[in-house]
Amino acid sequence: MKKFVEVLLFCGVSLGVGASAQAETLKQAVQYALTSNPALKATQAETQASAFELMELRREYLPKVEVFGEAGWQRVDDPAFLSPADNNRVGDRAQIGVNASVVLFDGYRRANLVYANAARVDGNIFRMLDASETMALNAAEAYIDVIRHRSLIQVARRNVATHQRIARQVRDLVDSGRLPSSDALTIDDRISFAKLALADVQRGLRDAEARYKRVIGRAPGPKMHLQLGPVPRSLDALTQKAIKNSYRVKFAQTQIDQSQFEAEVGLSEARPKLTLNAGVTRDINRNGLRGSRTDEYLGVGMRWTLYQGGRKAARNAYAQHTQRALSERAVAVREVAELAALSWNNYHSTAERNAMLKRQLRINGLIVEVYADEFAAAKRTLLDVLEVERARFNVEFQKVSSDAGLAFGSYRVLAAGSALAQHFGVRNSEITMEPNFQARAKNNPTGVFDVTIEPLK
User: Fold this and answer.
1) Which of 61-70, 304-313, 428-437 has the highest mean pLDDT?
2) What is the mean predicted confidence (pLDDT) over 250-270?
3) Of 84, 113, 119, 206, whose CB neighbour count within 10 A is largest?
């Protein structure tokens, strides 16, 4: 047991081990993954694109200025209005003008359009934060898996060395005639299996390092260590925190808000629209009349569609879209609660299993020592010794995986509560924008356009 602890300390598996200056901590690995992973950057770009699309809506509140004109030839046959000299004559004509308009009232269409898009931006931000939690958990898993395989290699190598030591003892006993020659073949067979197990673990380590490079973005360091993350005091506390802080639930809420605002945008078509118009037009030889004419105008225009078929069906459709969003939020709440329970149960079952394996490993160590003494005294057969060595190796192997599983389980619990990235010192502001666009839009629809979005690095 003492030797096993020393091996674990050497590999950095034991909890609370300090990192050397060259060691890469789990915190550093997660921070690097969250700031460099291309999959997360793609989501970040999509989020910022939606913010720029929201800023495009500023045009809905600004005047619209148009310049129009034309030039060509015309023939007008209107003897009742034109003189004989101008009637039925082909001549050149031209027109140029400027028209400006600004919407005074549009049935709250613009405001609700801004609200809906602001909710969409907030939703994308929450999706980005949720993706960062998943990325942080993937990074933690990749980091822990490398440590686990490195520790398993130490266990497998020691297993080979143990069998080689037994082989030397067996050969001496065979040469002295105290054991049959078949025992030499038996121990050689076990050494071969021990080496095969070592080869399998070495391949697993190469795979774990390849996954680490994909998730983190660089090769794992020579020295790595970890410790358990903080776990809430109870399942109820975890569930309440998970539902309250869940980015997925918050995203689902923005979908409800967005659906309601989009319904108001559609219903605004049934309300009047008032527009202030101003402009000037210059006509040259228009309508068969020689000379030029200038028209200037300023006034308020109104358009109101009093009846249009299908409005009732449209309202019903909007109501169903909102109901769907409400149901999806309820589904999200249930799934988050389930994830919290599964994470909690997995952590505590792993902790119980870890404690049992620790006790079993201590017992196996004592049995191995007793059997070794009894084998030297010719009270145990070689197969007895090899069987207890196999049992100790299996338990030792499981204990290393259990240690890693317990550490990962604690981080899985944090991820269930949407608190993993912050646990590793990554603030939300370092990942994406502040998800307050909807609140700002409701306070002042045009004020939401006052944002600065830095270009992606």
Assistant:
1) 61-70
2) 93
3) 119
